[in-house]
């Protein structure tokens, strides 16, 4: 049975997340109506194929009747007003949102909406550090968790429809309370964002000759610092109560580390302990598609800086019959070549290396 009953999904807010939802639902055969406060942003999402602009009320009648579900993909502080409007006006029968915090919108919807049970909060655990419809990807949610946060008053239909949307876009739905969600994302998303931003901020005023030496390590650590400061100010403000204890713990560790650095003799065991803690924490992170973490083996290939080389390398790796699990591309400093790191499952590396050598590639490492 189709939980959406063959009806439309309305996406309000056609930025990065909303347009990605629209693209994925459209690809899955769902009729998607789109709306955004900015007409030019809406037009761009339509042009990209994320759905059709929501017909004006009293228009030609195409798509008449409430959408099965509204997916509200606007900044956190705007969620409750938009959810209230789409439900009260009859634009949608039920509503969910995708905001990165859940206690704030859930509380505000309860205060403002006549029947708050028609709303269920949710959050796809996938995103990018760039915003707007042009950053959207149809497969953004593929294999990623999509948290759904019902409470005692939530109508089952709201949950069923939100679950259906999560599954249709390829995500892995999971249920928890809004408070549990906010505590979890404080640890795995919001505090990491602060750490990335503060570290990247250290680079802002640094002399050019220092920043020029930066490699993939600092780039990895600071990637998410490129996120939209307006959105992240809203996220951190809304989730301050859950983010603060994580940062308190970090401050304690940083203080211990600073003290250890003052004394080379007594300091080393503390440094070692803190660095080992980093190894332990990192090994708990899920691997690709949220699966159990797998250690991959890396095959490093030198690639000339010429058009078509990467395409040829990927074709040759494919011809070797080895599945490439992940890939990174780095430029070798001062040389007209790049280093392409191909991650494969342990045991597959010899086969891949031999096959690539046979096809004329130079391997490193
Ligand atoms: N950026 C990310 O990686 C992720 C963001 N989220 C959440 O998704 C939501 C949207 O974030 P993004 O797509 O990144 O932002 P975005 O800035 O790319 O898109 C937001 C869109 O909402 C529109 N909008 C704002 N107020 C509106 C209103 N009252 N009515 C209609 N449209 C309105 C804006 O014009 C804009 O096009 C946020 O709540 C965010 O917390 C969730 C997962 C990942
Ligand atoms: O880029 C990443 O790794 C992210 O973690 C992006 C992200 C940003 C905000 C969210 O609410 C969820 C995911």
From TrEMBL:
<dbReference type="InterPro" id="IPR036291">
    <property type="entry name" value="NAD(P)-bd_dom_sf"/>
</dbReference>
<dbReference type="InterPro" id="IPR046825">
    <property type="entry name" value="PDH_C"/>
</dbReference>
<dbReference type="InterPro" id="IPR003099">
    <property type="entry name" value="Prephen_DH"/>
</dbReference>
<dbReference type="GO" id="GO:0008977">
    <property type="term" value="F:prephenate dehydrogenase (NAD+) activity"/>
</dbReference>
<comment type="similarity">
    <text>Belongs to the prephenate/arogenate dehydrogenase family.</text>
</comment>
<dbReference type="GO" id="GO:0004665">
    <property type="term" value="F:prephenate dehydrogenase (NADP+) activity"/>
</dbReference>
<dbReference type="InterPro" id="IPR002912">
    <property type="entry name" value="ACT_dom"/>
</dbReference>
<keyword id="KW-0560">Oxidoreductase</keyword>
<keyword id="KW-0520">NAD</keyword>
<comment type="pathway">
    <text>Amino-acid biosynthesis; L-tyrosine biosynthesis; (4-hydroxyphenyl)pyruvate from prephenate (NAD(+) route): step 1/1.</text>
</comment>
<dbReference type="InterPro" id="IPR008927">
    <property type="entry name" value="6-PGluconate_DH-like_C_sf"/>
</dbReference>
<dbReference type="Pfam" id="PF02153">
    <property type="entry name" value="PDH_N"/>
</dbReference>
<dbReference type="InterPro" id="IPR046826">
    <property type="entry name" value="PDH_N"/>
</dbReference>
<dbReference type="GO" id="GO:0070403">
    <property type="term" value="F:NAD+ binding"/>
</dbReference>
<dbReference type="InterPro" id="IPR045865">
    <property type="entry name" value="ACT-like_dom_sf"/>
</dbReference>
<dbReference type="GO" id="GO:0006571">
    <property type="term" value="P:tyrosine biosynthetic process"/>
</dbReference>
<feature type="domain" description="ACT">
    <location>
        <begin position="298"/>
        <end position="365"/>
    </location>
</feature>
<feature type="domain" description="Prephenate/arogenate dehydrogenase">
    <location>
        <begin position="7"/>
        <end position="292"/>
    </location>
</feature>
<keyword id="KW-0057">Aromatic amino acid biosynthesis</keyword>
<dbReference type="Pfam" id="PF20463">
    <property type="entry name" value="PDH_C"/>
</dbReference>
<protein>
    <recommendedName>
        <fullName>Prephenate dehydrogenase</fullName>
        <ecNumber>1.3.1.12</ecNumber>
    </recommendedName>
</protein>
<keyword id="KW-0827">Tyrosine biosynthesis</keyword>
<keyword id="KW-0028">Amino-acid biosynthesis</keyword>
<dbReference type="InterPro" id="IPR050812">
    <property type="entry name" value="Preph/Arog_dehydrog"/>
</dbReference>
């Amino acid at each position: 049975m189709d939980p959406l009953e063959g009806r439309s999904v309305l996406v309000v807010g056609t930025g990065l997340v909303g347009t990605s939802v629209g693209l994925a639902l459209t690809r899955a055969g769902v009729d998607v109506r789109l709306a955004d406060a900015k007409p030019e942003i809406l037009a761009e999402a339509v042009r990209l194929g994320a759905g059709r602009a929501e017909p004006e009320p009293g228009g030609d009648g195409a798509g008449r009747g409430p959408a099965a579900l509204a997916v509200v993909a606007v900044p956190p502080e705007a969620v409750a007003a938009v959810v209230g409007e789409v439900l009260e006006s009859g634009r949608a029968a039920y509503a969910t949102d995708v905001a990165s915090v859940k206690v704030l919108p859930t509380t505000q919807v309860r205060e403002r909406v006549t029947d708050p049970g028609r709303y269920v909060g949710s959050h796809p655990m996938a995103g990018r550090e760039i915003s707007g419809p042009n950053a959207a990807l149809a497969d953004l949610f593929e294999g990623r968790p999509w948290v759904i946060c019902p409470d005692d008053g939530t109508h089952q239909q709201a949950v069923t429809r939100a679950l259906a949307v999560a599954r249709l876009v390829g995500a892995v739905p999971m249920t928890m309370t809004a408070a549990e969600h906010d505590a979890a994302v404080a640890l795995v998303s919001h505090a990491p964002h602060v750490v990335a931003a503060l570290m990247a901020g250290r680079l802002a005023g640094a002399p050019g000759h220092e920043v020029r030496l930066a490699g993939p390590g600092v780039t990895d650590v600071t990637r998410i610092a490129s996120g939209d400061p307006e959105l992240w100010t809203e996220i951190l403000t809304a989730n301050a109560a859950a983010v603060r204890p994580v940062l308190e713990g970090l401050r304690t560790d940083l203080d211990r580390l600073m003290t250890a650095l003052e004394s080379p003799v007594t300091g080393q065991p503390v440094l070692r302990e803190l660095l080992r803690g980093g190894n332990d924490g990192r090994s708990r992170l899920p691997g690709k598609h949220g699966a159990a973490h797998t250690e991959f083996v890396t095959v490093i290939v030198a690639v000339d800086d010429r058009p078509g080389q990467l395409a040829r390398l990927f074709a040759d790796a494919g011809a070797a019959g080895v599945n490439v699990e992940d890939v990174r591309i780095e430029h070798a400093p001062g040389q007209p070549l790049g280093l392409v790191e191909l991650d494969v499952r342990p045991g597959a590396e010899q086969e891949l290396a031999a096959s690539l050598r046979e096809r004329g590639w130079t391997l490193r490492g």
